[in-house]
Design a protein that fits this description.
136 residues; mainly alpha; two-stranded antiparallel ribbon; 4 helices; 73% helix; 4% strand
């Protein structure tokens, strides 16, 4: 193996197990949504969202990881809201003009997108500049 000066990011096994469990919960939630298994779908929101928040907390010191994990939290929140809107039956209810209940899921989706846009347009370039200055 060639020696490299790149940073290595490793995930402790305990964290990796939690992330794998998170994927399982997320899949069960979305399969429940697809199959219209309302009780199971609704029940799976809490562990799916809860683990996503814990992952954010654990990666809070790494700006890149935090940004992406926060985007995932908002993605799951939007996804869960959309599922609830369909399960409860207000997904097609008109709220204003052509905006239906399910369309409000765009708010958390956009928050996640804005977090990533900030990271890639502001934070990452700042980190790159600081890294260049530090190596000069």
């Amino acid at each position: 193996m060639k020696p490299t000066s790149e940073e290595v990011y490793s995930i402790p096994a305990e964290y990796r197990k939690m992330e794998n469990m998170h994927i399982l919960f997320w899949l069960v939630k979305d399969i429940s949504w697809c199959m219209v298994w309302k009780p199971l779908g609704l029940l799976m929101i809490l562990p799916t969202l809860g683990i996503a928040v814990i992952i954010c907390w654990r990666t809070r010191s790494l700006k890149s990881e935090l940004a992406h994990n926060l985007a995932i939290v908002f993605w799951i929140a939007a996804n869960s809201y959309w599922m609830i809107s369909e399960f409860v039956g207000f997904d097609t209810v008109l709220i204003a003009h052509t905006i239906e209940g399910k369309h409000l899921a765009i708010i958390p989706f956009l928050i996640g997108l804005l977090i990533l846009a900030y990271y890639y347009l502001v934070q990452k370039p700042r980190e790159n500049r600081q890294g260049q200055v530090a190596t000069l």
